[in-house]
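Schema walk-through. Below, the input block comes first and the output block second. Nothing else is stored per chain. Lengths vary across the set, and this one has 224 residues.
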Amino acid sequence: MGQKINPLGFRLGTTQNHHSFWFAQPKNYSEGLQEDKKIRNCIKNYIQKNRKKGSNRKIESDSSSEVITHIEIQKEIDTIHVIIHIGFPNLLKKKGAIEELEKDLQKEVNSVNQRLNIAIEKVKEPYRQPNILAEYIAFQLKNRVSFRKAMKKAIELTKKADIKGVKIKIAGRLAGKEIARAECIKKGRLPLQTIRAKIDYCCYPIRTIYGVLGVKIWIFVEEE
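--- output ---
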């Protein structure tokens, strides 16, 4: 029987790094973990809220804009460093956006003795990131585009990036059918068993009028 495991957790310490860097005593560890979750949720909610305000844009630009690939959190004694890795940081480059986000985070964290330091880092090759491709597919499906067409278009976008393989899987009530099923499309190599193979992965829910669809994307970046 095949044993399924998250490709990112499987490669921690080899090709994948942790997204949180801090030390805590065992009794305080759970508090630090909850604080990290609050920070990440607050940043994602802020971007979603502000995206809705300026949603009258072209389909291609709006479908994958301001998508966070991951958030790094580094904690020191008196400072919390938050590094946001984002595909197209148009929203966060606006005047006063970082200051507003810092105020929201300060309310969530409630850290009087620690100050927040937020940095924005643009991803060099956006279409190499599975989160951005998943957001693109979600946007297409919400606009009643055929799921097969959306999947093929997403794979075409990966041609702009230097990758060795990609696999996209969508499951749920596809095209509004009563019986749920899963569809998969693959291009190139995808050595999931090889630990030295750097594979990026994401699982993304899409809420449509027919119900919730699930998208899984694997991207084989390189072999170390």
